[in-house]
Every structure is written in C-alpha cells, then in structure tokens.
Design brief:
The chain is of the alpha+beta class. Among the domains are: about 100 residues, Beta-Lactamase, CATH 3.30.450; about 130 residues, Histidine kinase-like ATPase, C-terminal domain (Heat Shock Protein 90). The protein is built from nine helices and ten strands. The strands form two sheets. It has a five-stranded antiparallel β-sheet with strand order 2-1-5-4-3, with helices on both faces. Strand 1 and strand 2 form a beta hairpin. It is rod-shaped, with a radius of gyration of 45 Å.
Length: about 375
Amino acid sequence: MKNQEIIKKENQKSFKLALEAANIGVWELNTSTWSLILSDNTFKFLGINKHSFKGDFQSFLNLIHPEDREEVKDTIDSTILNRRPFDTEFRVMYKKKLARWFRIRGDIGLVESEKDIRILGSIHDKTERKLAYDNLEERVQERTAELEEINWKLREEIKENRKMKKIIMDISEKERRKIGHDLHDGLSQQLGGILFMVQTLGERLDKKETKEIDDLDKIKKYLNNTLKYVRNLSKGLNLSFGETGLKFALQELTEQMQELYGLKVELNYNSRKDIKDEKISTNIFRIIQEALNNAVKHGNAKKATIDIRIENNLMVLRITDLGKGFPPNPNKRGMGLKIMGYRASQIDGSFRINKDNKEGTEVICEFPYR
C-alpha cells in the first residue's frame, strides 16, 4: 500500500514537472457545483493567488477580458450540451493595461448525471506567439498596402503612357497626312509645272533641230521620275481608304515598293470581306508598311509576301521576306518594332516576329475578326 502511494506521488510529481517544462496548466470543472480546480501552473499563468482564489467558475470568468468573457462561457455551455471538445482563446488583463493571451482546450471527462459533468482541460500562455503573429500580420498588411500603392501608381503610369502613345500616334498620323498633302499640293504641283515648261520648250527646240534637245530629254526623264517618286511618297503618307478599303490600298503599296525600292511583293488577300474600318485599316497598313521597309532597309530583301487570312475567328496577317533575316542583336532603341507592337494592341491584337525562319523574317499579327 505504501509503495502504491509512493508511486502515485512520484507520478504526480513527474506529471507536474512535465507540465511545467511544456509551459502548460491543467484544470477541472465540476458542473454540479461549478467548482473549478486549477493546477499550480494555471495559477501562475493567470497571475492569481492560489489561496485567495474562491475556486468557482464565475471567479475564473471575472478574470477574463470583458470582450472575451461571453464567448468563453458560451463555449463551455456548448461543450456540456453537445458533449464535444472545444478549443478557444481569451485575454486576461494585468494592471488594467497589459493583456495576455491564453489558449484553453477541454473535453468531457466524466458524466455522473445530466447535472454532474466533469470537464477536463489545459491552458497555456500564447502571448509571445500571438504578438509575434500580430506583428508579422501588421508588417504584411503594411507591405501589402505599400505594394498596392506601387501597383496602383504603375497602373496609372501605364494608362498615362498608353494615352501619350495614342496622342503621339494620332499626331504622327496627322503629320504624315499633312506632309502628304504638302507634297501633293505643293511640290508635286511645282514639279508638274516645271515638267510642262520643259515639254513646251522641248517642242520648240525640236522644231529648230537644236543639239541640246538630248539634254532636255534627260531633264524631262529625271523630272518624270522625281514627280512619280513624290506622288508615291504622298500616297504612302496621306492614307485615305474611303470606299476602296484596305485591299486596294495594299495593292497600291506593293506597286510603290516595286517602283521605289525594287521589292517585288506578292499580296495574298484570302478574306472575302474587306476591312473598311478606318482605325483597323490604318494600323494594319502601317504595320505592313513598316515590315516591308525593314525588309528593304535591314534585310536587303528583293522579294516579300503579304498573307491575310481568317483562322479560328482571328484575322491573321503574315509579312514574310526573303532577306538576310532578323539580326541576332536588334537595336533595342529602335522604335519600329515598338510602334508595330503598339499598333497591334490598338486593334486588340497580338504581334510577334518569327525568328526561326532559315531565310528572311516573318512578322505575324493576329486580331479579332470583325
């Protein structure tokens, strides 16, 4: 019998040491009398005097922060009613200023009768962990707010950049048209007048059989070529699709590229419906024009193909040249590719360059078919 008592005391001592090492307190609630038994660790956690504690559940509730008190009481009542374990948290105020956080868990231990139920549980101080979590959460919230502000500023800058790009492109298009008008109405008219005067002079000199007539024929030939060149430039700068649509404008462009640069362009317009929307037509035309100019300027191409067709409800544009291909290290400051990409975005399209071609370069633009 004495040995059993010694073993029991040793077990209790070991259990107490284990609880202290784990920083855990235990408690037992008897619902028949609402008496509450607390372990030494629990008294220590809660900061109350073991001898002055009345030992009832209400005295325990009075220690809890007023904002958490009702929740703890409802949790205990629910455990008694539903016979289920619980796990909750509450605060205890110290000196009316410092609050400490506790985690309390419990379950039904013994049921003598409906009114005599024993609830066993544990309690431990989680203030440091709670504060560390709150501080981390606060830092996360602060950083999130900073990132959201940065993100908002970036979005606003992107919007502003898009607006500026559109304004610049609109101004650029207007300036192109203005220069085209000036070339057509000014320089072309002057060159035409000079050509007429040269022709008239040539007719007079021809009647007199003057030797200088050969030189005059050369001047007339140069003027004709110059006038043709200026008119072609004027057409390229001063876009106006009108009722003719994009297809007709591209046919003229292929002729101009042949006359101006010796680039033979094959046009495959495989859509039954022509694009007559001014905005779409203008952007597509300029993308093709830029791609062909690049083929001549950078690729030394002599042949190129424009292919327009419908694939999966998308209008697909491919400009392929047989030049020396895309440079391995393109000029990052060059505006041509950026402008083509921007123009594609203006019609809700995508733009890319296929660098895998063994020969030449392929520019691809896809946009919704309307």
